[in-house]
């Protein structure tokens, strides 16, 4: 290879370069500008690494997008990874886990069923996790799962009658954290427990109605479904702030300081399957248009690996283990939340009261259905 290259350089006609030097300069400047913009759009990367051998980590949304990158990172770091999936693993999930085990040389990667859109499924998983003696080890919970429906699609509800985006982005994760609280509090004082949760910039647009959390009694915003997502993200960030404050005030039996650290991560706009579905309007023609504009998306947006860097930073950086304050991370940098309501205890109390009431109503309805089926038998 070097010999043909040297021969080409020797035989190259430099007169053409001299005569058309302006064109060459324009080309090089354009190429440098595109490369510089792409380097900027990829965002910052973390340099932290961490040995996690033996640590137990629960991950939601770990089979695609950013969550998949997070699972791969955790497996390579040696953690015991529990991937929560919506239903019993299909062949795709089995093959994915087996392949990940082989690539990471880590056999402690497996899945458990926990559909965040179903309060019953969340309770079943949490009950099984809690119902152990002694308390199961839990070092970290990484909440990457989320859902954003495309515009101009009718309102979708779960089998339990809850708006799908609200249930997946807030009610399910909140129920999971609420039920796992005894396990989190019960970890030994020397063991650091991190809660890492995903958010997005739509939380800034959140406008929560405590009397109608999921907009059941209001027209569904078909043209702007991100309003529902914004409400859900704002609600979950507020509840996580309250969760961290209560953990700080919790008096441990061993009198040791708080060992719980809550970090919320905003990865920015990333080329995930969810983004592809949203930007294509969930239509075939939209997908074709998305593929046609692929160079534009590639240039402007981060891929999943770069989008996961802030999650890697929240997982590995020791600075988050040195403080028990609620933290928001963007581009591997700690920033203050844009909404003051997140730190308002009265706002959080109203929200938690309304969310608990909504969950109780869902579970009562399910119990009634179960009782009616039993009576029919």
Automatic annotation (TrEMBL):
It holds the Pfam family adh_short. Coiled coil: none annotated. The keyword Transmembrane applies. SUPFAM superfamilies: NAD(P)-binding Rossmann-fold domains. GO terms for molecular function: oxidoreductase activity. InterPro entries: NAD(P)-bd_dom_sf, SDR_fam. Keywords: Membrane, Oxidoreductase, Transmembrane, Transmembrane helix. The keyword Oxidoreductase applies. The chain crosses the membrane at residues 281-300. Belongs to the short-chain dehydrogenases/reductases (SDR) family. This is Short chain dehydrogenase. It comes from Schizosaccharomyces cryophilus (strain OY26 / ATCC MYA-4695 / CBS 11777 / NBRC 106824 / NRRL Y48691) (Fission yeast).
């Amino acid at each position: 290879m070097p010999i043909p290259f040297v021969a080409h350089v020797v035989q190259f006609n430099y007169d053409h370069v001299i005569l058309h030097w302006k064109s060459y300069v324009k080309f090089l400047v354009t190429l440098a500008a595109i490369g510089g913009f792409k380097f900027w759009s990829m965002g910052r990367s973390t340099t932290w690494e961490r040995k996690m051998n033996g640590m137990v980590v629960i991950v939601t949304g770990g089979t695609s997008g950013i969550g998949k990158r997070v699972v791969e990172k955790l497996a390579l770091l040696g953690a015991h990874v529990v991937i929560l999936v919506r239903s019993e693993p299909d062949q795709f999930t089995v093959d994915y886990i087996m392949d990940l085990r082989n690539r990471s040389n880590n056999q402690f990667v497996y899945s458990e069923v926990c559909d965040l859109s179903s309060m019953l499924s969340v309770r079943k998983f949490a009950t099984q996790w809690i119902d152990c003696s002694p308390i199961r080890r839990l070092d970290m919970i990484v909440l990457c799962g989320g859902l954003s429906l495309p515009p101009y699609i009718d309102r979708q509800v779960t089998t339990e009658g809850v708006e799908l985006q609200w249930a997946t982005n807030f009610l399910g994760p909140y129920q999971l954290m609420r039920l796992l609280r005894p396990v989190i509090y019960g970890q030994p004082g020397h063991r650091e427990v991190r809660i890492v949760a995903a958010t997005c910039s739509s939380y800034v647009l959140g406008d929560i109605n405590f009397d109608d959390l999921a907009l059941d009694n209001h027209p569904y915003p078909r043209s702007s479904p991100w309003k529902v997502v914004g409400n859900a993200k704002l609600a979950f960030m507020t509840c996580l702030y309250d969760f961290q404050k209560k953990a700080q005030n919790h008096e441990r039996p061993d009198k040791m300081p708080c060992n719980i650290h809550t970090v919320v991560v905003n990865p920015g706009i990333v080329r995930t399957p969810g983004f592809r579905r949203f930007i294509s309007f969930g239509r075939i023609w939209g997908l074709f248009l998305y593929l046609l504009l692929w160079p534009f998306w590639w240039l402007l947006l981060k891929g999943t690996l770069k989008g996961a860097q802030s999650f890697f930073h929240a997982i590995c950086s020791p600075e988050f283990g040195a403080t028990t304050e609620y933290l928001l991370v963007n581009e591997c940098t700690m920033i203050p939340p844009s909404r003051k309501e997140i730190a308002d205890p009265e706002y959080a109390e109203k929200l938690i009261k309304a969310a608990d009431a909504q969950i109780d109503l869902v579970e009562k309805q399910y119990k009634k259905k179960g009782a009616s089926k039993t009576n029919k038998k």
